[in-house]
Design goal:
The structure is a single chain. The protein is mainly beta. It has seven helices and 63 strands. The strands form 14 sheets. Strands 11, 12, 13, 14, 16, 18, 20, 21 and 22 form a nine-stranded mixed beta sheet that branches. The chain has an eight-stranded antiparallel beta sheet with strand order 1-2-3-27-26-28-24-25, covered by helices on one side. A six-stranded antiparallel beta sheet has the order 10-9-23-7-8-17, with no helix packed on it. The chain is elongated.
């Protein structure tokens, strides 16, 4: 499969051409693609995982809180699976469920053990299942559970496992996997059935789920004929219940103290026993069956016709004739993505060559998680319709047995937008081994060569054209080419405000260039100033008013021209002299002791403590431990405050020794001067280093003192990181003010 087709393209205008946003190999035999598609006449944001047959990969199902009557978000299910040692590469939501209880609509099997069965035979036919057989190969079909309960003389059928509904005139069996409380409460039983109940507790095996085809021996522990709620399930046993006409046969059978149970899986299409099935999760409806895509009449045979033609978020899965599995999600947003109809879902699976396909739960439950190429975390890649991960009943995961090797085979570099002349850019590279397993780039010495290179930073030449460089790490090499342009897509001059000066007054001319939505610095060599009347002079971007008058001041750069009125009046007013910087410093805080407040209206999952683990001076530093699990709204701002941070002299800058983790975001400070005006200053846009580094923020000495540092704070603006639970930490030391 291809390593990387493309990473980012920009959709211009109202084009209705399908736009591929990303395509990458995330593990050997597993590819992930993302695209914004307009071919149906409406926007559709589509995510797709393609899994080729490969012995290094395996399928698993997750279950909410590991119990039948429970829900849990897909990220939480994935994290628990990874904590258990599984190298999860991708995951999606699976079955539909009863919202009130978390009960799956259909079948689920984990590691060849039945967690929950369909309720009735018709349910098994209506709701097909994605399964993997004893060789790990995927299938889609209709599968039903049937069990037997035997004594030496009698035998009877067990109709369902761990399902507390549809038990009129039926027999059900319950294990400790049913509910975390280890009790049973029934749903939908008629009053007549409640009067005809038999409840039998069996002991002899401590099991959570029945292995398919395995016989279990039991001893009758208790028999009850009075219907009740909160029936306890023993740790070393199971509970069998029978209602209506099944009551008497069960009571007759349990007169013998020794019983045996066996649970079997039946393939409904041919009634063959399929006890080889290892994993199973049911879906909502068929899309492609026996190679034929269902039409609207076939789709509506077992489901509401309106639900088949309405556009919704969808989760789809299909299998081709060569055992390739395609998983697809489509988002349902107000404007950015309109979802699929079921007919469009059928067409998508047929387009991919699926000979069997089904739809899992959709709507707000639709969620896809992917371990992106060269990365270790598994992250949600679609936008759930709820705006967050919904708690669902179960999930389907694909994991790999491949373990990262030490030698780099591939370097993944996002496609680089063109550079503006003189612009600098920090290149970030992700690394993988020959099996596409991620390798930590921070632990490798990556060499970048080329004109204007410093470390991994590229400075574009001052002439348009192409910048070319070479990347090398271990035995892997690749060239990098970036277009360099001197044409801007937009420009601002003095914030758009007219100039009003007095004779002799000077002002620093400010301008920002814009290139395809990105702000860039305009080199001085690219700027050309013009004036209709020579009432001022310009030297090195400093405008000095010479005589009274009015004119238009023009700035041209990058093919853009902006003109602003310039008015010069009177004489320059006396101004309070600004003290000349002495380049001396005062330590505001060395973080040796003290109490630091860390509260935020946006993020709750961070703490600050004085720590001796890392420092640049003294005995300790301030340790900030954070993750984004508690990021709930707006930006991810994390504030640190101390009322003792006061600047008593006119200052030119602040400095801070910062121990980086390569992950921390934008570091800023908020200051309040003596007149109550609040100022925000920047230390660094992104912490992309490991170890200590001194960062600085400019301060205006004209601000009236005393100036209070109200907070130091980190700001994360990448919304995809919201809700992540991976903990990180940085250290702060030697907070200084310079004057």
């Amino acid at each position: 499969m291809r390593r990387k087709l493309c990473m980012i393209l920009i959709l211009l205008g109202a084009s209705y051409t399908p736009l591929t946003v990303g395509a990458e190999t995330i593990s050997k035999g597993i590819d992930y693609t993302s695209k914004q598609d307009h071919s149906s006449g409406v926007p559709q944001t589509i995510q797709q995982i393609t899994v080729q047959p490969d012995p290094g990969n395996y399928w698993m199902t997750g279950k909410g809180r590991d119990h039948v009557l429970a829900t849990e978000s897909v990220p939480s299910q994935v994290n628990r699976s990874m904590a258990a040692g599984n190298r999860v590469v991708a995951a999606v939501n699976a079955d539909m469920y009863k919202v009130a209880s978390g009960l799956p609509i259909g079948l689920q099997i984990q590691q060849n053990a039945v967690l929950v069965s369909h309720s009735v035979k018709e349910s098994a036919l209506k709701f097909p299942s994605f399964v993997t057989n004893g060789q790990g190969k995927p299938e889609i079909g209709s599968y039903g559970v049937i069990g037997t309960l035997k004594s030496a003389a009698r035998s009877m059928t067990i109709h369902s496992v761990n399902r507390n509904e549809n038990l009129d005139n039926r027999v059900g069996i319950f294990t400790n996997a049913h509910h975390v409380s280890k009790t049973i409460n029934f749903s939908g039983l008629s009053d007549a059935m409640k009067k005809e109940a038999a409840i039998v507790t069996l002991k002899g095996n401590s099991i959570k789920a029945f292995k398919l085809g395995q016989s279990y021996d039991w001893t009758v522990h208790q028999v009850d004929t009075t219907f009740r709620s909160n029936i306890p399930i023993p740790t070393d046993g199971v509970v069998v219940v029978a209602f209506g006409k099944q009551k008497k046969p069960l009571l007759d059978l349990v007169k013998e103290n020794k019983l045996t149970t066996q649970i079997n899986l039946i393939q409904m299409s041919n009634l063959q026993v399929r006890n080889d099935i290892q994993e199973a999760a049911s879906g909502y409806n068929w899309l492609v069956k026996d190679g034929i895509g269902l039409d609207l009449n076939a789709l509506s045979e077992n489901h509401d016709r309106f639900l088949m033609i309405v556009r919704k978020a969808r989760t789809l899965i299909g299998i081709t004739a060569n055992q390739t599995v395609h998983i697809m999600t489509v988002d349902q947003g107000r404007t950015t993505s309109k979802g699929f109809t079921m007919l469009e879902a059928v067409a998508q699976m047929k387009r991919l060559g699926a000979v069997s396909a089904l739809a899992f739960d959709g709507g707000g439950s639709t969620e896809m998680m992917v371990r992106r190429a060269g990365e270790s975390p598994v992250r949600t890649v679609n936008v759930p319709a709820d705006g967050r991960s919904r708690a669902v009943t179960n999930s389907l995961m694909i994991a790999t047995r491949y373990v990262p090797e030490t030698s780099v085979a591939y370097m993944i570099l996002p496609e680089q937008p063109e550079l503006y002349v003189g612009e600098t850019r920090q290149l970030t590279v992700k690394l993988t081994d020959r099996n596409s397993q991620p390798i930590n780039a921070s632990q490798k010495k990556i060499k970048l060569t080329g004109l204007g290179v410093s470390g991994m930073q590229v400075k574009a030449p001052l002439q348009p054209g192409k910048w070319t460089g070479q990347l090398a790490v271990d035995q892997a090499k690749r060239s990098v080419t970036i277009n360099v342009t001197n044409r801007l897509s937009g420009m601002t001059f003095n914030g758009g405000k007219p100039f009003a000066l007095k004779v002799g007054q000077t002002v620093k001319l400010t301008s920002d260039g814009w290139l395809n939505g990105r702000k860039v610095i305009i080199p001085s060599s690219e700027k050309k100033y013009g004036m209709q009347q020579p009432i001022a002079s310009i030297t090195k971007d400093v405008l000095t008013a010479k005589k009274a008058g009015k004119t238009m001041l023009t700035l041209s750069a990058g093919g853009q021209t902006v003109s602003l009125p310039l008015t010069v009046t009177g004489s320059q007013p006396a101004s309070k002299p600004v003290p000349k910087p002495s380049n001396k410093s005062i330590v505001l805080d060395s973080f040796e002791s003290g109490t630091y407040t860390s509260t935020s209206p946006y993020v709750s999952s961070y703490t600050t403590t004085v720590s001796t683990e890392q420092k640049t001076a003294g005995r300790s530093s301030l340790k900030l431990t954070y993750d984004y699990s508690g990021w709930t709204k707006q930006n991810g701002a994390m504030y640190i405050t101390n009322p003792k941070w006061n600047i008593t002299v006119p200052a030119t800058k602040l400095s801070l020794d910062l121990y980086g983790d390569r992950k921390a975001p934008w570091l800023r400070a908020q200051l309040k001067d003596a007149k109550g005006k609040v100022h925000t200053v920047d230390f660094v846009k992104h912490v992309d280093w490991t170890g200590f580094k001194t960062v600085e923020a400019k301060v205006d000495p004209a601000w009236p003192v005393p100036v209070q540092v109200q907070s130091l704070y980190f700001v994360e603006t990448d919304m995809k990181k919201k809700g992540q639970v991976q903990k990180s930490k940085v250290y702060l030391d030697q907070f200084k003010v310079w004057y």
